Amino acid sequence: MVVNLTKRDLAVAVFGAGTMGRGIAQVCAQAGLVTLLFDSRDGAAGEAIAAIDRALEGLLLKGRMSAVAKQNVLDQLKSIRSFEEAKSADIVIEAIVEDLHAKRELFRTLESYLSRDAVLATNTSSLSVTEVAAACERPERIGGLHFFNPPPLMRLVEVIGGLRSDPALVEALMGFVRRINKHPIVVADTPGFVVNHAGRAYGPEALRIVSQGIASPCEVDLLMKEAAGFRMGPFELLDLVGGDVAHAVMESIFDQYFGDPMYQPSTQMAVRVAGGLLGRKTGRGFYNYDGPATPTPPTISVPSRPIPISAWVADEDGGRDLADWLKAAGVKVRLGGEPAAGGLCFVTPLGEDASSASVRLKLDPVRTIAVDMLGRFEGRRTLMKTPLTNADTLGAAVAALSATRASVTVINDSPGFVVQRMLVMIVNIGTRIAELRIASPADVDIAVELGLNYPEGPLALGDTLGGARVLSVLDGMHAITLDPKYRATTWLRRRARLGLSLSTPD
């Protein structure tokens, strides 16, 4: 039998007083629960409560909390120094080091002190809940509560039942999460759960783009923020999280999925970690943090040229919108048909590179420029050149596309540009999570929005871009690169072909 985790006099014990444990304890105490805090290091629990006091004082000074409310929270917190003092806890949340042996040993020890119906929950982000519980006498009462950093600010909690968990445990944990004013989603016990799994697109694909010489880290960040609407660029995020932490997660997910190419880590990141370029914590990563973050210089120098008098635009997906942009800049546009000899040619490929598009359309690659029109991005526009595109063509194209005060980034040839590649990989991995039944389609989107702060969840993003377009980009990238990393999931392919929302359940 599982204890009622919504009862009025519920007592919580948090084991581990580091950043996560401290944050979880604060969340529980702010919800009015008696919260016991333990750490194996002498004095660590007291230091954590002092840190919570300072955090609450900040809320008080900002007018977000009254002095009485602050004191009520502190009154709920108590540091403990022995397992014996935790025996009254109805639920223990473990937030110690991310090590399977250490977690198992802690749970085995706790079992001898707690009541038989008390719940044990691990905050693991990468280990299997089933594995953690396997060595315990009563694995049926062990589940996962994956909080996100910092717990007081992040609304999402992933709730995980192990293979031997009591069927009632997950529902009880869901109630507990709501009790502490967080948003729970039910997740299957799989590598990375939902949020860390979904994050395998953003950083890894950006690293691959840079390693292929397509764009610089600064350019990728600007495109993802200004064109795609993300709050942080992937390299800013890698520097914030820490290169060592990010790379360890990449390796862990890749290994746990037995080397699936979709989750391949970056050799570039491995070298940076070895060199100590970890980001903000070391003062230098993809940016320099000794002073203000210093962007890296653009990889391509664009010559200044006047706006062209005329241009030819391929009459394909996005072509008409591009023609309107050019007309607004005063360019005389011919949409489709035979291009004029010697004139500027624009193509709008989905998943193709500029070279392939110029060959397919029988255009001169010297005067061909590709423009990313997948999402009709106007905040920052991407131009892609072939290896043969000359300076006059490139300069004239930049002048035309920036004439209406739009920012322009020029990249080297790549199937899928930058933003296309990044977005369709986010969508594809989101559909993989749904396909594997790790969470419901609706919860996949909610988890990514709340846990990763993306503008949209991956399935909703796919619907916004259009499932058929997403599939076209992936198929184009796969056809050119022959890289299995870019194979579309069956979930995506079926729904795109049927014209269904990617959130449509089976």
Summarize the structure in words.
By secondary structure, the protein is α/β, with parallel strands linked by helices. It has 3 domains: 11-189, 3-Layer(aba) Sandwich (Rossmann fold); 197-282, N-(1-d-carboxylethyl)-l-norvaline Dehydrogenase, domain 2 (Orthogonal Bundle), CATH 1.10.1040.50; 310-411, NAD(P)-binding Rossmann-like Domain (Rossmann fold, 3-Layer(aba) Sandwich), CATH 3.40.50.720. Helix content is 42%, strand content 13%. The chain has 20 helices and 14 strands. The protein has an 8-stranded mixed sheet with strand order 3-2-1-4-5-6-7-8, with helices on both faces. A 6-stranded mixed sheet has the order 10-9-11-12-13-14, with helices on both faces. It is elongated.
Strand line-up in the sheet with most strands: 3-2-1-4-5-6-7-8
Query: What class, by secondary structure content?
Result: alpha/beta
Whole-number mean pLDDT = 94
Whole-number tally of structural domains: 3
Query: So how many helices?
Result: 20
Instruction: Kindly provide the radius of gyration, computed on alpha-carbon positions and rounded to a whole number of angstroms.
Output: 26 Å
Low-confidence stretches: none
Spell out the CATH superfamily of the largest domain.
NAD(P)-binding Rossmann-like Domain
Counting DSSP E segments of at least 2 residues, the number of strands comes to 14
Largest sheet: 8 strands, mixed
Measure the end-to-end span. Answer: 33 Å
Helix amount, in percent? 40-55%
What name does the CATH topology of the largest domain carry? Rossmann fold
In CATH's first tier, which class of the largest domain applies?
Alpha Beta
Residue fraction in strands: 5-15%
Q: What coarse outline follows from CA principal-axis ratios?
A: elongated
